[in-house]
Amino acid sequence: MTWKAIHRWLGLTLGALTVVLGITGAVLAFDPVLQAWQAPAAPGSLPVATLVERVTRNVPDPEEIRRLPSGAIVVFSFAGDQPQASYVDPANGRVLGAWEPSPLPRWVKNLHRSLLLGDAGRWGAAGIALTMGALCVSALVLVLRRMGGWRRLTARVRGTLAQRIHVVAGRVVLAVLCLTSLTALTMSASTLGLVTLDRTEPEVISVVAGGPDRPGAQLPALMEIAVKDLRKLTFPGTTDPEDTWTVTTAQGQGWIDRYSGQMLVWQDATVAQRLNDWAVVLHTGEAAWLWAAVLGLAGASVLVFWLSGMVIWWQARRQTPRIAGNTPLAQADVLIFVASEGGSTWGFAQTLHNALRQSGHRVHSSALENFQTAAATRQVFVLAATYGEGQAPAHASQALSRIAQLDAKAVPVTVLGFGDRQFPAFCAFAVTLDQTLRAQGWPALLPLECIHQQSGQQFARWGVALAQALGEPLVLEHVPRVPPTVQLTLIARQDYPEAFEAPTAILRFAWPVQSLGARLQGHGGLRFAAGDLVGVVPPGSAVPRYYSLASGREDGFLEICVRQMPGGLCSTHLLGLQVGDRVTAFIRPNPGFALPRTRRPVLLIGAGTGVAPLAGFIRRNDRRGPMHLYFGGRDPARDAYFGADLQRWLGEGRLATLKTVFSRVPNGGGYVQNALRRDAGHVRALVSQGAIVRVCGSRVMAQGVAETLDEVLAPLRTSVASLKAKERYAEDVF
């Protein structure tokens, strides 16, 4: 069972009970805080003997003095035949009022410790504490996988509102919840009798037989004990001449002779007792009201985890793939196996499945962990996405070892990878899978191909190659499953009608306010940022086109830079919009291109409309960190996109330096590659200072920039590949 399955199964089956313990724990955590406000605490340096003297002056016939975890002093005594307990002021021993535990905290504590079911409930509560521990461990593993390792643990979380709440809350309180689970198990061990904490009272022999009792204020043993260490002091009985004073402290328990005042026997607290004492403090917040407040908030967060987890589970359930027209494996001549973390790869599998069926094949599609062949099998295709730092998707984590144990057949197995080039481990699982298959001796119809960011165009080109290899007509027109969309209203536009090759415009849209329910389910509630992508669905098409964002949610609007593409359906639609017109769109996160929160220099390199997301980074540079932009266009009079904004940001300190080059005018400076070579010393200095590099533009431009930077950085014995491995270099190419 995978970590994801463990987390989901425990959350769904026992989540409601963990919520009960979490909420009751939150209520109980604030009880020590209330106690601390009800009575003054005793000074820590006050000797117990002095406290006894003050108490005996004001309380007739006291039987026990107890120091509460809050530091307040309670004295137990009898008024006639009636027992009573009173708060006293440790400064003078004056009675402040009756002490009586509130019935509500007592009921809540019973619910928290035993679910109101007695001994059986205590075992149940211990089981739930163990469940909470397992949930915490599995949550840590999943968070590390989702964020891409320890180094990216504090990076911005992307996804629906429910996903962001679940992950961000987990990062904040996961350690506290794990600690409460461990301490709960420690306390349960003693409650259930698995560990013995009770001290065995020794046989006590008085040093002095008879004689007058020495007053408690004159007992040498009590003079040496500070009130800050006191837990409980029991007075000797007046009717039993061999009875003793009994004192319990954090360090142990002692018996004091009532006549001589000397310590007769002292028992140090055992290791088990000390561990249990620490567990009580850490679990309840007793004697530490600030920690108690932290525990209260952590306990209340369990409800947040459960609710957001249920929303995430329901969203995933709705996206569960259902392949239509699936032939049984034994009868199929073509098999398709899929490894997908978020479910999008299954959409490509369905497209391939349908196209092969239309060509007359009997096709069976299944998850990669079910990999096998049959006598009728003639072709096998594996569509494999990569997750986290190059791992297999959770459901396929054991697929590689399973495949390695199978005997290779003469049946070709072709691998198609899906990933994001922004991550160093681009399609790493697909690469490993392909290498394993070839090492085992499985042939391939086509070499490994890797699809970047679920590109329908790349998939279609791969389909052309597949059709040629099969020798039969085959068209792969993948229509991706569009996530929930919103309507964006155009509020402003800046046109560049004379831009080289095609008209261009910067379009600004208002981002609509969404309800909480819609945001939880991802219906337009994403916190988009510059560098993310907006998918626009043009009229008459179900296939979205993606544009890099030049703004973030904090800017209050969504902005893109659009160039007219020859015959482009979406670009024609967008450039034809007038202020007040609407488009249907959704947000697609692009976390690999996002800028981390850093004080290090940032080197931005863009050409043409590729400057859009870089302008968005500069726009949000509120901390005035050192950002340096190299921008390449063709003619400053035609395509100096964001020109006025860039000049303003220079003046505001959001942009440290700006280098522009234009390739189609005399003395324009050429291309950005030329500017980088001319400023080689400056570029090397920035990289030496740990600069983050972001490149945006055409694929040809990005390749030229990478080659130029390899030359420029050679004296530093580093390269673009090395910067990518350190997550300091990322591209957004089109």
Key features of this structure:
734 residues, alpha/beta, Rossmann fold, 5 domains, 8-stranded antiparallel sheet, 6-stranded antiparallel sheet, 21 helices, 39% helix
Straight-line distance between termini = 40 Å
How does the major sheet shape up?
8 strands, antiparallel
Per CATH, what is the topology of the largest domain?
Rossmann fold
User: Runs with pLDDT <50, length 5+?
Assistant: 520-525
CATH-derived architecture of the largest domain: 3-Layer(aba) Sandwich
How would you write the strand order of the largest sheet?
A: 4-3-2-1-5-6-7-8
Q: Helix count, per DSSP? A: 21
CATH class of the largest domain: Alpha Beta
Q: What number is the mean pLDDT? A: 86
Rg is 35 Å
- Tally of individual domains: 5
Structural overview:
The chain is α/β, with parallel strands linked by helices and 734 residues long. The chain folds into five domains: 3-33 and 109-196 and 293-314, no CATH class; 40-95 and 198-269, no CATH class; 329-470, Flavodoxin domain (Rossmann fold, 3-Layer(aba) Sandwich); 486-588, Translation factors (Elongation Factor Tu (Ef-tu), domain 3, Beta Barrel); 602-733, Rossmann fold (3-Layer(aba) Sandwich). It has 21 helices and 24 strands. The two termini are 40 Å apart. Mean pLDDT is 86; it is low at 520-525.
